[in-house]
């Protein structure tokens, strides 16, 4: 007699300056494929874009460690562990959760660099300058202007689409994660550290837009190289030609989502409940 095995839920994690509700089209697409998905915000986020903008101070001094603990607490220890999909800083958090056994698999899309990455392209510095340009921003929350958003997120888009995304989805973001990431290689116990070489974990997919300003492809390729030393766990890399940091929210988001779904299927995550016999044979 067979017993049902629950397919893992999917947990989406947003990055700096984009509200979690921007994942709704992804949640709907994944539901069509049988996945139960959710996108809880960071600690300090309100439940809507408007409320988060009005209550920006709630995000003051929220750092990488607090964000990781927030999602780890939401996940808990119940099986099956979720598939975690994160964009930008959410991609770094996804790797942390996978490394610490809070995820069955992870997808990191244009992920903020982990400790050990040495590449620092000019466009990355320019995209982070609205925060990193003022040391006082480490403990406070910072908003982007439409022009800053266009450079950091919408550089591959028509100006009107970039402006529409800015108006619809942007929220203030805490400065602390950027400062922590920028100094990761100089900190003995950095919250951006991930065990890339020896950890035994679920599969990881790294994804990059070829013209991303905020996390240039060179940075994500260096992350992939760090993971390449690990023969114990699977890491894959996918690149999208002509896409920038907005690739999860702009008009081409469906192509990215479908590539993720295809990769998950290859790993055996179909999103639909399976059956197994008592001895484990399917």
The count of helical stretches stands at 10
What is the CA-atom radius of gyration, in angstroms?
18 Å
Name the average pLDDT.
Answer: 93
Report how far the terminal alpha carbons are from each other.
11 Å
Model regions low in confidence, pLDDT < 50 over at least 5 residues: 1-5, 274-282
Could you estimate the helical fraction of the residues in percent? 25-40%
* Quaternary class: single chain
Q: Give me the secondary-structure category.
A: alpha/beta
Overall number of domains: 1
> How many beta-strand segments?
10
Order of helices and strands: EEHEHHEHEHEHHEHEHEHE
Largest sheet: 6 strands, parallel
Can you give a write-up of this model?
The protein is α/β, with parallel strands linked by helices and 282 residues long. It has a single domain (2-269), classed as Alpha/Beta hydrolase fold, catalytic domain (Rossmann fold, 3-Layer(aba) Sandwich), CATH 3.40.50. The chain is 35% helix and 14% strand. It has 10 helices and 10 strands. The chain has helices at 24-32, 49-54, 64-75, 89-99, 122-132, 146-152, 159-169, 176-182, 217-227, 253-266; strands spanning 2-5, 10-13, 37-38, 83-87, 105-109, 141-142, 173-174, 204-209, 235-240, 274-277. Helix 5 runs antiparallel to helix 6 and helix 6 crosses helix 7. It is globular. The termini are close together.
């Amino acid at each position: 007699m067979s017993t049902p095995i629950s397919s893992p839920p999917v947990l989406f994690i947003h990055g700096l300056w984009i509200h979690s509700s921007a994942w709704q089209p992804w949640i709907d697409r994944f539901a069509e494929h049988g996945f139960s998905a959710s996108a809880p915000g960071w600690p300090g986020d309100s439940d809507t874009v408007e409320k988060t903008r009005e209550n920006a101070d709630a995000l003051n001094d929220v750092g990488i460690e607090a964000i990781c603990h927030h999602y780890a607490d939401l996940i808990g220890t119940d099986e099956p562990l979720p598939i975690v999909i994160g964009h930008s800083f959410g991609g770094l958090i996804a790797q942390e959760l996978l490394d610490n056994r809070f995820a069955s698999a992870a997808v990191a899309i244009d992920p903020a660099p982990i400790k050990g990455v040495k590449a620092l392209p000019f466009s990355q510095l320019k995209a982070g300058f609205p925060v990193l340009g003022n040391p006082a921003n480490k403990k406070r929350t910072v908003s982007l202007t439409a022009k800053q958003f266009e450079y950091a997120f919408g550089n591959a888009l028509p100006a009107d689409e970039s402006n529409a995304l800015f108006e619809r989805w942007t929220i203030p973001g805490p400065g602390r994660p950027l400062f922590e990431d920028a100094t990761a290689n100089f900190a003995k116990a950095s919250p951006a550290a991930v065990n890339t070489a020896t950890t035994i974990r679920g599969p990881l997919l790294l994804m990059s837009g070829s013209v991303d300003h905020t996390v240039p492809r060179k940075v994500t390729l260096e992350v992939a190289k760090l993971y390449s030393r690990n023969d114990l766990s699977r890491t894959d890399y996918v690149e999208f030609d002509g896409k920038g940091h907005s690739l999860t929210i702009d008009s081409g988001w469906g192509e990215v989502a479908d590539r993720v779904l295809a990769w998950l299927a290859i790993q055996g995550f179909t999103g639909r409940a399976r059956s197994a016999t008592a001895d484990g044979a399917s």
